[in-house]
Amino acid sequence: MKLSLGFSPCPNDTFIFDALVHQKVDTEGLEFDILLADVEELNQKAFAGALDVTKLSYHALAYLLDTYALLDAGSALGRNCGPLLIAKRPLTVAEVNAGTIAIPGKYTTANFLLGLAYPEATNKQEVLFSDIEGAVLRSEVTAGLIIHENRFTYQDKGLVKIQDLGEFWESTTGHPIPLGGIVVNRRLPLEVQQKVNRVLARSVAFAQAHPQATSAYVKAHAQEMDEAVMFAHIGLYVNDFTLDLGEQGRAAVAHLFQEAQRKGVIPVSEQAVFLPA
After folding, report:
1. What domains lie within the chain, and their CATH numbers?
2. Structure confidence by residue, pLDDT tens digits, 87-104
3. How many CB atoms sit inside 10 A of residue 196's CB?
4. How many angstroms separate the CA atoms of 154 and 177, rounded?
5. 89 burial class (0-12, 13-18, 19+ CB within 10 angstroms)?
6. pTM for this entry
7. Is 59 a catalytic residue?
8. Active-site position among 59, 148, 175, 233
9. CA separation (Å) from 13 to 54, 60, 64, 94, 214?
């Protein structure tokens, strides 16, 4: 059976999917048509229901629970790994609220967290995540919300951190920050959905056990990235939660949705978030 599969070219994604893509693990008869795209493009594909399996921001998933179920394998959850609000100089809350903020996409979890931390900051401009630092440096925006490997490079460009939104979330909730997960289309038979989860967990476990075996695939999609940054990126976003959300990971995701629904940031849904066991 062939399934469409979307994920980003970021090192944490190519790292965990390498063994699945190249059949280094048992895929239980599944084959995959691969789409590599940035997370906001993947979000938009998901809104169209176009993909069988895809990386998805948790913010976007909140709107798509009737279409997709969350896998226990493949998530990016963690501590000290949240999006950063950065600028050319220190800014007050009033300046952030009054300014224009570059965001990596409307339905990114980063934008969701920005809304929780700065509810009055409503003047936002969508910018490709890799171009946000440049937009700030050129003073096209007041501040920028950076994700992925840009966490490791903004200081080299003379930019300063206004707030770590991951720290904001962790200090107010006590939970690790849920950034993105892998979802499966509910139109597939349940046994296929569960098979996808098993195969992905196998791929994650292979990558964790044999990190060097993934390096060629990771480097092929991170050619302009310093190798130290590449491995720091993987270390930040790939952890025990990636192999299996477990009770703690599921609780963090559930709290994110409950808090967002309570504040009216996302629609209320009675649909189950997680793939049935």
Report:
1. 2-77+177-262 (3.40.190.10), 84-173 (3.40.190.10)
2. 999 999 999 999 999 998
3. 27
4. 21
5. exposed
6. 0.85
7. no
8. 148
9. 11, 18, 21, 37, 11
